[in-house]
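To: structure desk
From: M.T.
Subject: fold request, one chain
Message: Could you run this one when you get a chance? Sequence is below, nothing fancy, just the single chain.
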Amino acid sequence: MIDNPELDFHADRCLGHRRLERFLARVEPQCTISRQYYLDSNAAYREMTVRLKAEFPSLLVYDPVDTFCGPRDCPVMRDGHSLFSDNGHLSEYGSRLAGAHLLEWMAGQGIPISEQVRAYSALLLQKGQRQDTGHW
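Reply: Done. Structure tokens follow.
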């Protein structure tokens, strides 16, 4: 599994409780990193997985880039929730999202996933969408 993005700033500056601070500074904070920054930041790890996959063709490697990033950017916030608790760790919501996408990927690779695990994953995602605290 390739690691999730790491931010080059602290995620809390994008949260709602910082609105006054942002207003007084009259600057909108940077709340994304570029997809290219993410890819570059773990390029050595990605290169290693390519070499390992060449040596062990049946090796499966999950890459969460499309879970966290669009074509150009990787946003900190999604659906009003922070994906990150700080610059290098996922929030509870981000972890639920990553886990659900990992399970989908595993099922697509033919790895058996029980219906109980699928149902639990869906439940966690629904719980995360209902909570709207702005931070975890």
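Reply (cont.): The two ends are 24 Å apart (CA to CA). Let me know if you need anything else for the meeting.
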